[in-house]
């Protein structure tokens, strides 16, 4: 039987994960219906898009969060940095509704949302457009046969290296030590990234400006250990 799934391309890769499991609560559905159309980003048809153009006032910096979960971290960072423009991507609509509640309650105007897979947008954005990026507690896809589904991998790291400015920071956190090991394997010796760790405390403890996610708080209550990895985008070599 022929599959109806479209053939994946670099800017439209296969998506693995969930987008929704049950109907949204009425309060969150109202936010999705009323608020999301004003701040959502749809996939552009052309390339070389400047993400700062999604804001009426050009932000001083642009930060990206891939898979923002319930939005606690993204909203907290956006509140703490009103001069920064935030783009958050999350395919799970319960999470989108949760972030919209945070945005509404805090009156945030510096957040734009991609309620879907991040990659079709990221492939269309201009080079060196982000000052910081976050990948916090992603799906670890623990089975060996699913390892290629992890966000951290050669293709996505090449994409992130293109999108991050020289000196930009890329943060990855997880409570899954297999995923942490996988991330270090791919990033520690990557030519475009430098691991910002001198002592064990640099990855065992979160950065000073850290805002805990709901998932992270649950993991810590269960006695799980979390690791916090920080990488810097190396300067591009001219010529």
What report would you give on this structure?
- It is a single chain.
- With 239 residues, the chain is of the alpha/beta class.
- The protein has a single domain (50-233), classed as 3-Layer(aba) Sandwich (Rossmann fold).
- It is built from nine helices and seven strands.
- It has helices at 26-34, 36-39, 72-80, 93-106, 119-122, 154-163, 177-187, 201-204, 214-221, and strands at residues 61-66, 84-89, 111-114, 130-136, 164-174, 193-195, 227-233.
- Helix 4 (93-106) links the parallel strand 2 and strand 3 (111-114).
- Helix 1 (26-34) crosses helix 4 (93-106) and helix 3 runs parallel beside helix 4 (93-106).
- Residues 1-8 have low confidence and may be disordered.
Which structural traits does this protein have?
9 helices; about 240 residues; Rossmann fold; alpha/beta
CATH topology: Rossmann fold
How are the strands of the biggest sheet laid out side by side?
A: 3-2-1-4-5-7-6
Terminal-residue CA separation: 51 Å
Annotation field: number of helices? 9
Beta-strand percentage? 15-25%
Low-confidence stretches: 1-8
Could you give the order of the helices and strands? Answer: HHEHEHEHEHEHEHHE
């Amino acid at each position: 039987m022929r599959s109806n799934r479209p053939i994946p391309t670099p800017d439209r890769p296969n998506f693995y994960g969930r987008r929704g499991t049950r109907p949204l609560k009425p309060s969150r559905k109202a936010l999705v219906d009323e608020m999301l159309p004003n701040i959502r980003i749809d996939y552009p048809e052309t390339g070389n898009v400047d993400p700062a153009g999604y804001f009426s006032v050009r932000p001083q910096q642009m930060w990206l969060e891939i898979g923002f979960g319930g939005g606690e971290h993204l909203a907290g960072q956006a509140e703490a940095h009103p001069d920064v423009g935030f783009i958050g991507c999350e395919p799970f609509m319960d999470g989108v509704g949760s972030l919209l509640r945070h945005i509404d309650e805090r009156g945030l105007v510096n957040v734009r949302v991609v309620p879907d897979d991040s990659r079709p947008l990221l492939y269309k954005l201009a080079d060196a457009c982000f000052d910081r990026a976050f990948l916090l507690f992603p799906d670890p896809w623990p089975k060996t046969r699913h390892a290629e589904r992890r966000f951290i991998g050669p293709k996505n790291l090449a994409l992130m290296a293109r999108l991050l400015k020289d000196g930009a920071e890329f943060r990855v956190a997880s409570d899954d030590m297999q995923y942490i090991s996988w991330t270090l394997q791919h990033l520690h010796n990557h030519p475009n990234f430098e691991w910002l760790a001198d002592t064990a405390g640099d990855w065992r403890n979160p950065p000073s400006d850290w805002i805990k996610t709901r998932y992270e708080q649950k993991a810590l209550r269960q006695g799980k250990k979390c690791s916090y990895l920080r990488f810097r985008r190396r300067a591009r070599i001219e010529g």
